[in-house]
Write a structure and sequence with these properties.
Strand order of the largest sheet: 1-2-3-4-5-6-7-8-9-10-11-12
Largest sheet: 12 strands, antiparallel, barrel
Low-confidence stretches: none
Shape: elongated
Radius of gyration: 21 Å
Structural class: mainly beta
Number of strands: 12
Helix content: under 10%
Strand content: over 45%
Distance between the termini: 42 Å
Length: 209
Amino acid sequence: MWNRFGIDQYMEDRIAFFSGLRITDQFFIGSRLHADRFAVSVGDYSSRNTVYDADSMILLRPLPSISIAYRQDNIHAVMSRKRRDILSPDSSFGVVFSPEPGISCGWNYLHNYDGGINSWHVRATILPSFSVSSGYARETSTYAVSAILLVKNVTVTYGFNYHAYLGMTHRIGITFTSAPVPFEPIVMYRKKITEEITIDITSCSPDDL
C-alpha cells in the first residue's frame, strides 16, 4: 500500500506491507510493516526523514454482523522513547456493526500522543466495485468523506476532510492485492422464494441443477 497525506508545507508518505492469518472464523490476527517519509518545506528550510516500524492487529467476530478490533501501531516506538518523537505508539480500539449487506457503521477510540479521540463513521457499498463513507471525530472537530474504487486487484481511495488546524486536506491511496477482493454491495432487491423444488442431484441435468 502507498498513501500520501499533507499540505504543501508538510507531507507524509507511507509504503506498507500487510499480512494476516485467520485462526478461526471468529478470530484473526495481522501485522503491518511500513516505511514513513516526512517532508517539511517552510520558507528556506526543508528536510526529509524516513523511518521504519511495525504494527499488530487482532480482530474478533462474535456475530456475523459485529466486528471488534484492536491495533497497536509503531511497536518500536513503544519500546524506544527516542522513536516516540517521530512516530507515536498509537493504539486503537473499535466496533463495527453491519445491519445489512453493504451498510456499516462504527465507533473507534484512538489513543495517541495528544490523548484520546472518539470517531464515528458510516459506510455504504453502492456497487461491487464502489464504496463511499463519511466520518466525524469529536475531539479534533474533523469531518471526512471518502470514495473507494476497486478495479480488479487495485483499490484507489480518495478522501478529503476539514481539520480545525490544517483546514481542508486531501488523501489519496492505492492498494494492491494478490487476488481481487470484491465489496459486498447493498442488496437492493431480494427475490422471495414461494415454491420449494426438490431434485435428485445425482441424476439431474446441468440445466435442472
